[in-house]
Amino acid sequence: MSTLKEKLHKKIIEHRPRTTKLLKDYGDKVIAKVTVEQVIGGMRGIKSLITDISYLDPYEGIRYRGYTLQEVLKKLPKAKGAEMPYVEGLYYLLLTGEIPAQNEVEDLIIDFNNRRIVPRYVWDVIDSFPSESHPMAILSAAVMSLERESHFNIKYKQGMNKKDYWNSTYEDATNLLAKMPLIGAYIYNKLYHPERGHRYPDPSLDFGANFAYMMGKDKPYDDVSRMYFIIHADHESGNVSAHTGHLVASSLSDVYYATSAMINGLAGPLHGLANQEVLRWLQGLIDLTHGKLPSKDELKAYVWKTLNSGQVIPGYGHAVLRKTDPRYTVQREFCLKHLPNDNIFKYVDALYNVVPDILKEHGKAKNPWPNVDAQSGVVQWHYGVTQYDFYTVLFAIGRSIGVLSNIIWDRALGYPLERPKSITTNMLEEMVQSK
Ligand code: NMX
Ligand code: MLT
Hints:
The chain is mainly α. The protein has 21 helices and three strands. The protein has a three-stranded antiparallel β-sheet. Residues 235, 239, 241, 271, 319-320, 371-372 line the site of D-malate (MLT).
């Protein structure tokens, strides 16, 4: 057993009695009420999911296993000379709750390397897509095609004990995670650089650096990749992608089915695809102003035009957050350090100074502040990834770290099939009248 798996096993054994006690001693304790608005309004704020991997405070933003993003970026081990930590270290942290030592991450990097081989048929699936296909559709299908590799399914058919579900799920999850950057880079090269072809990974490199290498990008794109994958990894469990992954896995569908499903949820413009939408919207503004930074009044007019035509301002607002997303801030700080004179960054920064006030005046969005997606495309564009359809694939690679960690723990703690109850409009009307 690898060091990480041993540590995880120990943590699972320690944790199980807490869940058992909660269920046995407090199973019928009421912890929340549900309003009509919540039932009709997308279940906002209903506390009905449990996870220890991350928690989202509306004013502070995300914490992974209790650590803020700044703390995660500071404390996790890094490669020599790197600004951003190893992605493998984040997987260790999310699974165990502990910051790994340098040698523990190095072991994990070797383990990931050994799991990187992608079967030929996955490349065939990707190659069979027409080149106009959206990269998220290709990614979802590529992950789905790997389903036949599932260890969980083999063990399940052999009659596995429920207590052991986590073990083969860990194998499947780690196998898939190690392959995600290869699949992403292959899709990128196929769609946008067919002349270059696929670059096979360099076994001496970690998750982030390898991705940069396969994308054909020089430093500091290795750090950009590490930063990207780390900040997008998890956002507690109610967001569409994490929730979809959890829901699908709750029927004991394997991690390939669940991850493909989470990718499909992430591909919507109100969720992960917003990063692509931000760049599309920005390009509209840049074209309109011929690349010359507009005045405050011109910016305001552009924002109001979007709102008045019944569209949302991409990259702003959030279902839970009520302040500027710390993931936005991490990327902004990176931009200030590495690309302060980038023209698109200047547009993004100028918009930051006008959009929140306009959204407040508009009076609809509960959160007028920017989310992660308002900044993420700018960094990619700067380093030459200008094909913004691809941006959500980067989000998906990052998000798979959190979703897969959650699924392993779901199985370890024996969380059951998810199956909430629905009611009809008639029933709801009767319920409110009888109150
Ligand atoms: N621009 C214009 N209107 C907005 C915005 C925005 N950025 N954000 C919210 N609203 C509107 C929203 O459409 C709704 O209008 P209506 O009453 O007509 O249906 C109203 O304000 C209330 O919505 P909220 O309760 O504030 O937001 P909700 O929780 O429903 O949705 C988002 C959250 C993120 C879907 C929403 O803020 C949005 O559409 N933002 C733009 C898209 C985006 O950036 N998504 C990325 C989110 C982060 N991620 O990576 O997933
Ligand atoms: C996310 O990272 O999943 C998004 O910010 C959306 C959310 O948390 O609802």
